[in-house]
Amino acid sequence: MTTDLKGQNIVITGSGGGLGEGYAKAAAALGANIVINDINAGNAAKVVDEIRAAGGNAVAEVGNIVDPVFAEALIQRCITEFGSITDLVNNAGVFATEPIWSASLDKLRAALDVNVIGTFNCARSAVGPMMAQKSGNIINITSGAHLGLPEHGNYGASKGAVSSFTYGWAVDLAGSGVRVNCLSPMAFTPMAAHLPHLPPVEVNIPPLLFLLSKRSANLNGQIIRIVDKKLSIMAHPANRAPVLERDQWTLDTVGDAFDETLGALVVPTGIATYEISKVS
């Protein structure tokens, strides 16, 4: 099976540096046409120049995806420049890493604006053209922080929303030819400079290329997790079996249910490395 990306026209948000830059350069090297998006014009131009110097094809579209008008223009730039949009990588994001007792509402709002609203704006703008052509691929970027990490509650909440977008949009778009999946990477980038002991960007590129490629054509609504040398697929939120049933629950019978059955199923906090068995 072919593993190149020739003929694919890809918008990658937040691709003027960090993971987005790595994704863009790798996809371009496999033959894809790339729209580089960033709020920093110099950073976007630098990535475009480097892609072109390496023999790839890219253009820059500078602006803030929090603005729905710009998000629409970003998608249209891809269509105008390359003839269609085949793939969207919702990579742009900002951190909000503080414990709840000193967390800033302004930082939370900034994270929600970019990570949630920006992701929504770009996906909503891309879905129309993708549905019209009966094909398309949206890749969201989430974080293991949404499982619960110290001082990452606000950031994790914003990325939890991105994970939920992935599940919900995949259901909405089932049968349309448009699929939605998600990558949960971990890398040392300028955005994560306060966390120095993270894997390099390069570790995270192969799973993203897989999601862009035809080899992932059977995946929809899934989250792939890459943590240095470990590759996994993340579980969807679900009710853990057994599900108990009574005609009427009381305080005591709920308590008994936890004492006798449900208590043994409680998942510990901080489950970023927790594993569950294969779904039966």
Q: What does the model show?
A:
With 280 residues, this protein is α/β, with parallel strands linked by helices. It has one domain: Rossmann fold. Helix content is 38%, strand content 15%. It is built from seven helices and eight strands, in the order βαβαβαβαβαβαββα. The protein has helices at 18-29, 41-53, 68-82, 105-132, 153-173, 205-212, 251-260, and strands at 9-12, 33-38, 57-62, 87-90, 136-141, 178-184, 223-227, 230-233. The protein has an eight-stranded mixed β-sheet with strand order 3-2-1-4-5-6-7-8, with helices on both faces. Helix 1 packs across helix 6 (205-212), helix 3 runs parallel beside helix 4 (105-132) and helix 4 packs parallel to helix 5 (153-173). The relative contact order is 0.12. The model has no long low-confidence stretch (mean pLDDT 91).
Can you give keywords for this protein?
alpha/beta; eight-stranded mixed β-sheet; 280 residues; Rossmann fold
What is the structure about, briefly put?
38% of the residues lie in helices and 15% in strands. It has 280 residues and is of the alpha/beta class.
Secondary structure: elements and pairs:
Layout: E1 9-12, H1 18-29, E2 33-38, H2 41-53, E3 57-62, H3 68-82, E4 87-90, H4 105-132, E5 136-141, H5 153-173, E6 178-184, H6 205-212, E7 223-227, E8 230-233, H7 251-260
Parallel strand pairs: 1-2, 1-4, 2-3, 4-5, 5-6, 6-7
Antiparallel strand pairs: 7-8
Helix pairs in contact: 1-6, 3-4, 4-5
